[in-house]
């Protein structure tokens, strides 16, 4: 049962009782004034003013009890409102606690899933782990199909991939298109020749039997096949 509805019903009942008492009190006041006026005029009355006054005193006691009940009702009503506020605050705190439990449950489920995945990975790695004996057996099995590079000397450092640019320039495939000649010449003759910005240059003598594209090639090739080793 809702305490607010109970309080409202009690308030309506109390108001009705007090209204009834006020109506009776108003009626008794009218009767006592009528009785006093009749006695002053010498007319007979149903009840003397003294008896009517006694009824007013009794009714006043009832009205005072009604006022006490109203004060008690107001005090109880305030207490009920205060308890309702406390219940709402506790309910809000409880809902926050429930939400925290829900978030904690979700985080725990995520942690459990990750833990299960880790356990599965550990079990898989432990079941599929390769022992040293298996590695040695595999190496022994493929040793007959592998060998060191030609002319390999034990203890030497690994060389970069071949061919590099210098070896390509000295190769026959490169020389069949362009003949590189270094013309040192006489210094006195060089003074009569056209200067190229004062820098010492190597002159390229093109091969008359090579292609035009090869004759126009003057820049060095960028043949770095493994730039990560720089």
From TrEMBL:
It comes from the Eukaryota. Residues 182-199 have a biased composition (Acidic residues). Residues 56-118 form a coiled coil. The keyword Ribosomal protein does not apply. InterPro entries: Mediator_Med4. Residues 182-230 are annotated as: Disordered. Residues 208-220 have a biased composition (Polar residues). GO terms for molecular function: transcription coregulator activity. GO terms for biological process: regulation of transcription by RNA polymerase II. It is found in: Nucleus. Keywords: Activator, Coiled coil, Nucleus, Receptor, Transcription, Transcription regulation. GO terms for cellular component: core mediator complex; mediator complex. Component of the Mediator complex, a coactivator involved in the regulated transcription of nearly all RNA polymerase II-dependent genes. Mediator functions as a bridge to convey information from gene-specific regulatory proteins to the basal RNA polymerase II transcription machinery. Mediator is recruited to promoters by direct interactions with regulatory proteins and serves as a scaffold for the assembly of a functional preinitiation complex with RNA polymerase II and the general transcription factors. Component of the Mediator complex. PANTHER family: MEDIATOR OF RNA POLYMERASE II TRANSCRIPTION SUBUNIT 4 (PTHR13208:SF2). Belongs to the Mediator complex subunit 4 family. This is Mediator of RNA polymerase II transcription subunit 4. It comes from Gigaspora rosea. The lineage of its organism: Eukaryota, Fungi, Fungi incertae sedis, Mucoromycota, Glomeromycotina.
């Amino acid at each position: 049962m809702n305490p607010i509805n109970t309080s409202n019903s009690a308030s309506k009942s109390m108001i009705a009782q007090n209204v009834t008492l006020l109506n009776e009190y108003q009626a008794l006041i009218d009767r006592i004034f009528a009785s006093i006026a009749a006695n002053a005029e010498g007319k007979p009355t149903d009840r003397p003013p003294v008896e009517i006054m006694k009824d007013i005193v009794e009714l006043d006691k009832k009205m005072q009890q009604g006022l006490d009940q109203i004060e008690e009702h107001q005090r109880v009503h305030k207490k009920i409102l205060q308890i309702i506020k406390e219940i709402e605050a506790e309910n809000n705190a409880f809902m926050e606690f429930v939400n925290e439990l829900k978030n904690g449950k979700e985080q725990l489920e995520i942690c459990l899933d990750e833990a299960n995945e880790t356990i599965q990975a550990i079990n898989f790695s432990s079941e599929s782990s390769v022992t040293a004996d298996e590695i040695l057996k595999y190496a022994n099995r493929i040793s007959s199909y592998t060998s060191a590079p030609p002319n390999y000397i034990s203890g030497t450092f690994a060389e970069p991939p071949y061919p590099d640019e210098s070896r390509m320039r000295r190769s026959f495939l490169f020389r069949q298109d362009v003949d590189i000649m270094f013309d040192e010449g006489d210094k006195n003759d060089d003074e009569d020749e056209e200067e190229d910005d004062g820098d010492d240059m190597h002159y390229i003598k093109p091969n008359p039997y090579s292609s035009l594209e090869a004759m126009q090639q003057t820049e060095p090739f960028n043949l770095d096949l493994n730039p990560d080793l720089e």
